Amino acid sequence: MTTVRLPLFPLNSVLFPGLVLPLNVFEERYRAMLRDLLKTPEDEPRRFAVVAIRDGHEVAPSAPGMPDPTARPERGPAAGFGPEPLRAFHGVGCAADAATIREKSDGTFEVLATGTTRVRLLSVDASGPYLTAELEELAEEPGDEAGPLAEDVLRSFRRYQKRLAGARERSLSSGAELPDDPGVVSYLVAAAMVHDTPTKQRLLQAPDTASRLRDELRLLRAETSIIRNLPSLPAFELTRTPTSLN
After folding, report:
1. In terms of pLDDT, which residue wins out, 1 or 132?
2. Which Gene3D superfamilies is this protein grouped with (predicted)?
3. Is pLDDT above 50 for 30?
């Protein structure tokens, strides 16, 4: 088992390997994380891990508010995640490489990172200025019939795109070349489909590529059918979630 310790960046969304993640970072705990990442030599990856939040707040409360106007704002690296942060996060996340980190004049950061490898969360350490985690790197196994399944998923995904474009009365880029590697296909489609965080998390932690593709095929067929029968209420609106502040 290969383990690694990395800074932890919890979000209300799921990151997949190969996908780009833009971040606007303003909380002090994550600014401290990025200042440390900037100390990494330029020829080495600036790695951190992204995990989806199961139970907690992406941005820690900074002022009293509902339901208790007398409640004190939370401080510290685990603010918003309760006394046991490990329980607040989904068990599988994604390591990320911050290709670009730019500090702005107000001390906040703009970050452009890319997901690299799935990781399993083993423990969380809240003793420093930001959360760190011990993680197990997860290999991506192809599973049975991943190739034919990827072809079926791509065909269904193109139909889904067309239905979604028609329902939203705007065009999606259908001329772009789609990959033929089953693993890449599975992650790209998982990220592109409009679904809630628990569904995307389920796809991320699938035991192998073939299992993920089978799940995606079921989801795409069901979603395309819904959009076809309810053109005035597209799936995008049915599954909309709040925009991430990070």
Report:
1. 132
2. 1.20.58.1480, LON domain-like
3. yes
Asked if residues 157 and 189 have their Cβ atoms less than 8 Å apart, the reply is yes
Residues 6 or more apart whose Cβ sits within 8 Å of residue 195: 219, 239
pLDDT for 131 beyond 80: yes
- Name every residue whose Cβ is closer than 8 Å to that of residue 227 and which is 6 or more positions away in sequence: 160, 163, 164, 166, 167, 234, 235
* φ, ψ dihedrals at 55, nearest 5°: -150, 100
Threshold 0.85, pTM exceeds? no
